[in-house]
Amino acid sequence: MVVFLGSFLLVAVTGVAFGEQKPAVAAEKDQPAVVQASVEGKNFCLGCALKKEKGAKAQCSLYGHKHALKVSKAVSEDGKELTEMKGWVLHYLETEKSEHLIKEHHGERLTIKGKVYPLERVIEVDSFEETKAEVKEAAAAEQKTCPVMKGPINKKLYTEYKGKKVYFCCAGCKTKFEKNPEKYLDKLPQFKD
Questions:
Q1: Which of 11, 38, 146, 157 is most buried by its number of CB atoms within 10 A?
Q2: How many angstroms separate the CA atoms of 72 and 74, rounded?
Q3: 125, 129, 132, 137 alpha-carbon torsion, rounded to 10°
């Protein structure tokens, strides 16, 4: 709604961001207000992710990380898999139980039990633990050789690509990788899903 008042233009606030489509009313009616669930996913800093992927000017190192959970699996308390939540980014309701998740546990795969508010994409944490299966897979997928020259890696010489560290044997290999990273991904265990 637009209202002209003298030489001022007032626009009524609809609660929808510019360019965003408001969800259908039917979808809102079908969605429960709260779901008690066990949610698995990766804890990540939204600011860091936007900075890496889209060039955002996030200053997490100065102001602190603000984590969210990228959902890989969700199951309701009655055992029903909540497939519609896969891929969602859930923000933490700020409570004493979520405080450490918001600022710490960067990049860890977690299982969180709590209340999910689907329309708001928020989770209220009751409890959490590091996902055991993911820990074993991550250990098995540890990079041991340089993707370019196949030599032993130097843990001090790395770059980050798509949120994961890639290690090299020398600075020359790092430069080659950075020019065409996709060429080497099939040689890296951390990118095999």
A1: 146
A2: 7
A3: 70
Domain boundary among 94, 113, 136: 136
The answer on 183 and 155 residing in a single domain is yes
Rg over CA atoms, the chain = 21
Task: Name the residue range of residue 175's domain.
Answer: 141-191
59 touches 45 (CB < 8 A): no
Helix (H, G, I), strand (E, B) or coil at 118: coil
Indicate the pTM of the whole model. Answer: 0.56
- Tokens found for residue 24: 């259908």
Tens digit of pLDDT at every position of the chain (193 positions) = 444 444 443 333 334 333 444 444 445 567 789 999 999 999 998 888 888 888 889 888 788 888 999 999 999 999 999 999 999 999 999 999 988 888 888 788 899 999 999 999 999 999 998 876 554 455 446 889 999 999 999 988 999 888 788 999 999 999 999 999 999 988 888 877 5
Q: Which of 24, 40, 46 is nearest to 82 (CA)?
A: 40
